[in-house]
Amino acid sequence: MVGLSAPRWRDASFLQSLGAAFGTDLPPQPVSAPHWVARSNMLARSLGLVDWLDREDALALLSGAWGAHGTRTHASVYSGHQFGVWAGQLGDGRALMLGEIDTPAGPMEVQLKGSGLTPYSRMGDGRAVLRSSIREFLGSEAMHALGIPTTRALAVVGSSLPVRRETMETAAVVTRVAPSFLRFGHFEHFAHTTNDTTALRRLLDATIARYFPDLQGAAEPAAALLQEVALRTARLVAQWQAVGFCHGVMNTDNMSLLGLTIDYGPFGFLDAFDPGHICNHSDRQGRYAYARQPGVAFWNLHALAQALLPAVDGPAEAASELLLAALEPYKAEYARSMLAALRAKIGLASAHDDDQALIDELLRLMATDRADFTIAFRRLACGDRATRDVFIDRQAFDAWALRYRTRLALESSNDTERAARMNRINPKFVLRKHLAQAAIERAQQGDFSETQRLLKILERPFDEQPEHATYADHPPAGAQQIEVSCSS
Ligand code: AMP
Ligand code: MG
Description:
It is built from 17 helices and twelve strands. It is of the alpha+beta class. Magnesium ion (MG) binds at residues 253-254, 263.
């Protein structure tokens, strides 16, 4: 591949370079009649690939058709806990690492999702449907624009290839980009599935050397890494909670070691605030309900700790204590990050003892009245009268507003300055389920303009964009009925 702006591929991607125990080299299986559905020019620009993305060979490569880009493509093996139960070996069942490229934003892994069967496909067909590919594309780009760490999506390529889910659909390929797609499950694999302590240690050492260089030379590398991952995860989940993001499938194989949001399946953003909201139709028990996400992340970190145990020298009991101690800061870091995020959401610039109680009361009122999560916080910058409208029990809101005004007076808060600050934190636009659904339905008819329009809106979630006001409205009646399940 020649051309100034074409990606420059490294010889091997990270896991591939670690040896045969970490996965399998194989080519992608192209889809038929590939065509662009969506592209993120914003991401392409930051990677220095914007001109390349306009070329025919880009479409070929990102549809899985052109394996000859000079690198060996690779599916990695991992394992994991799904819905709290050990699931054994999983792996890139429909994802394939195209390779690593050097970009102005640093080295990035480029991965296709939906590019065909791999040795880890199990009962699956190795494909992704157009519907879920558009959701992943919009979801990850929207999260990035919200300032939340995430894997990115460069493009969606559609095809005529039929794929069977509940009904017949067509296949698509998403190109995902991230510094690393490492998951908790990669560690669990060597600890529990293959019991290969040598590979586990190699993975641990290489991960630290490559992605956590500051931890090199730590007395106990496994504990140092675990603590850093715990802190990043705490901050990530606090950001999810603060924006009303529900992941939907927080299995340990869907947990990023770098603290990124990864694997967008039946995710969703809260509409009416219900702490018990379950966005994944397949999650009958509500294991991954909104309010449970911080606890589930901690549970998943314990699974990671368990996986790292064989990599710690010395008696098992001491090792176990060491790793548990490394997890401990999670709780305080989550609480600290969450309180800071919520303080910022209500426009507080300083910290006072009663802030948590003030915030809890607002969230309680929002939950009781099922106030729209995004609208309620966005309105708060417009003043009490505007916010009051989103509540049913207006007297209760007025009582809260009185406390809020008293608190603001403590820091001599300036209304205009505070409103500007809040509007940079509380988004006006999030990827509501019905918005994604409308874009998907149009795309299924061959019209991709709505997907691209939605991307453009979601790239500027904090801007007023009055011309797109309807995209910030409450969901229409019936939108709650849209079901998003694990089927993708
Ligand atoms: P997920 O819950 O989507 O993260 O997927 C869990 C596991 O199932 C991963 O190892 C995926 O690679 C695999 N998987 C999901 N869907 C498919 C599919 N259609 N074909 C092959 N593997 C799949
Ligand atoms: Mg997954």
